[in-house]
Design brief:
The protein is an alpha/beta fold. Helix content is 36%, strand content 24%. It has helices at residues 46-53, 76-86, 102-112, 119-128, 144-157, 174-190, 202-206, 235-238, 247-258; strands at 2-13, 20-31, 35-39, 61-66, 69-70, 87-91, 162-166, 194-198, 210-215, 218-219, 225-226. Strands 3, 6, 7, 8, 9, 10 and 11 form a seven-stranded mixed β-sheet that branches. The chain has a four-stranded antiparallel β-sheet with strand order 2-1-4-5, with helices on one face. A hairpin with a 6-residue loop joins strand 1 (2-13) and strand 2 (20-31). Helix 4 packs antiparallel against helix 5 (144-157). The protein binds adenosine-5'-diphosphate and magnesium ion (MG). Magnesium ion binds next to helix 1. Magnesium ion is lined by residues 46-47.
Amino acid sequence: MAVLQASHLKKYYGREESLVKALDDVSVSVEEGQFVAIIGTSGSGKSTLLNMLGGLDTPTSGGVQVEDCRLEDMKEEQLTVFRRRRIGFIFQNYNLIPYLTAYENIVLPVRLDGKTEDKKFLKEITEFLELDHKLANYPSHLSGGQQQRVAIARALISKPAIILADEPTGNLDSQTSDKVIDLLKMTSRKFHQTIVMITHNPEIAEKADRRIRIEDGKIHPAEEERAAGSDNRTFEQTERTRDDWNPRTDRENSRRKRA
Ligand code: ADP
Ligand code: MG
């Protein structure tokens, strides 16, 4: 089942001679639980695509559907709330708030939503990300890898259906970036999340279930590939064994509650 669908996305900047087609008719569908890598040269349109998928920017034309919501139908405030609850963003520069501790940074999206964090879940993810002894530290007293793990925990805390990451390991050394990617992959599997991640690093792209190459604002058809030996089923479908938190069940429960 597709959790994310983009249809005929176009993003044009400027006009006439200075027209830039940052995205030129991109359609893509991502299955629940899939780990997708977006690859392509600098300036090819990767960040533009990711920003459209997460509703951080609006397309010139075309649309994006996340779960059962069409982003273009939402008003700005609705979109803000939707993003905070359903989408976790991870950026190259971590985007942590310097005057908040690791703990405060992690719980920020939940607090902004007027809620209290799920303490048990927080403990679980911070232990998993090996941050449990660093929670009182300010970002300036954390290594790059630790800061990025704080950003990952922040992206996970609201239990979003989708994680969108723009070159999350771009500022990390190769050993640290390997570890961060493995953790991201493991957490997303554990919590049944879908990941769409931009990367320049071929070794990281190899770890994905599927790779999409963007070239001049278009998907390069020959380069749409799935990991060797993997069938089309995702981990989500093959290994839905635990009764851990699951975005779908969660959603169904809340729907039931409302009904
Ligand atoms: P990538 O992430 O693959 O490096 P981007 O998506 O950032 O590429 O950019 C795609 C193209 O769109 C580039 O040619 C870039 O210069 C252009 N672009 C991106 N944002 C803007 C903007 N705000 N105004 C004008 N051109 C832009
Ligand atoms: Mg970019």
